[in-house]
Write a structure and sequence with these properties.
- It contains 3 helices and no strands.
- It has one domain.
- It has 75 residues and is mainly alpha-helical.
- The chain is globular.
Amino acid sequence: MLMAHPAVLRNLVEQYDTLRILQAENGDAEVQQRMDDIAYTLCISTGTRDVDAALIAARHRLPGARTQDDSLLTT
């Protein structure tokens, strides 16, 4: 699987987080469409099928991520 560059992942995560705030504030259809587009791109870029998993995977690949952090694991 091809891996997205960390700079690309950071940009996608930042865009998604910003759009999530905008969506919560006004619920605009255009914002929702853009969120869907970013979510799709994140999923493709991280090899996942769910935006939440994609966000976790993307953040895990960013510089400074604590790769030994098991706080995301469920038991």
